[in-house]
Write a structure and sequence with these properties.
Strand order of the largest sheet: 3-2-1-28
Number of helices: 0
Structural class: mainly beta
Radius of gyration: 18 Å
CATH class of the largest domain: Mainly Beta
Amino acid sequence: MSYSRLPLLSAVCVATITAAQMPSPALLVLNKEGTLAIVNPANKRIVATVRVGDTPHEAAASTDGKLAFVSNYGGSTPGNTLSVIDLAAQKEIHRVDLGPLRRPHGLAYADGKLYFTCEVNKLIARYDPATNQIDMLLGTGQDTTHMVELNNDASQIYTANIGSNTVTIVNRTGAMNWQETAIAVGKGPEGFDVTPDGKELWAAGSRDGSVSIIDIFAKRVTHTFNVQTRRSNRLRFTPDGRLALISDSDAGELLVLERATRRELKRVRLGKEPAGILIVPDSSRAYVAVTGDNNVAAIDLKTLELVDRVSTGIGPDGMAWVK
């Protein structure tokens, strides 16, 4: 399949709340009802709500804070669009038609471009906001390629493949050349993250309560341990590297681990279906989307206590932070 033939369409949608000045910082919360909420975290005020595509799942923001991106995953009919939002104007400026690409999900912004997965097509793709074009496709050959992350210089891509029980590490070997390594992990890897020092990747098995630790340099699993979750949804490290957080959607909890010792510190009761996790840059607070209860929970990472909630819409899930 040639990426040069993928059709792209642009559309403009109007924010459903009158545009207000963008807060700094801002918390972006994606709601599966089909909206992106822009939240002032200082006062919990929703300054704008922007209509996006069908049943969106993940959100990301550009490094300069000008754009937000949303993967429109779709419901009973697989989705095939991305939404591009102008954050200053608080409106969707492009509805990117992905043509034959279906179920866009994980998003990661790096080096001026947006990387995303397409589950049905078993691939990672890249969107260039400057040209409004898809400029790269990388097939993984793995089932349910779900989340995606990159290293600091965008020379390495990581993705978890739920249906194949693997994590794929992709290394750039040239301008448009990549080498892929699929690594077997626990059952149903969905949430994963790379340690802040870039040395390890931890993948949480959604179907067996495991965490697999991958040595990124050696590209192999060095340790597996059980955290006794019922269904791990996301795994995130605090930027200071001290903690690992896992949302357990079936148990309704947030599991907090000490990274260095892998010791469980606490399980915080959150409610129905906790999913997306966002941790602020200074590692002081985590936001967890409690999808089934239609709110976002705030956890103080010093006391490990639930300290606040904000209602952003129906079915909150993916989030992003804008400085």
